Write the structure tokens for this entry.
Amino acid sequence: MAKRPTASVKMTRLEARTRVIRGAGRFVFMMFCMAIGFVVVATAVPQHREVERLEAKVRLSKEREKSVEAEVEYRQIEYRALREDPAFLEIHARDRLDYYRQGERVLKFRDSR
């Protein structure tokens, strides 16, 4: 004759099944959280690249702006000097027209640009 399982054996089996179900539930929950995390990261990567591209574009624009501002400032100083300083005007005109005084030595340097 077969023995009937006692209540303690039934309870032990029930507890074991409960532990397995809880473990499986935790595992499924962790996998779900990881999947959500991967989805969030995957959607953030293209946006991060776009932000970096736009920041590089802004840096380039600021560098261009600085060079243009420096050029404008140089031109303003040169214009003011041409209007107000007769010596600078004479030097500038003589250099442009290749005039020199008799007995004067003029040294010209080529620009390396």
Summary: The chain has a mean pLDDT of 88. Residues 12-97 form one domain. Residues 21 and 27 are 10 Å apart (CA to CA).
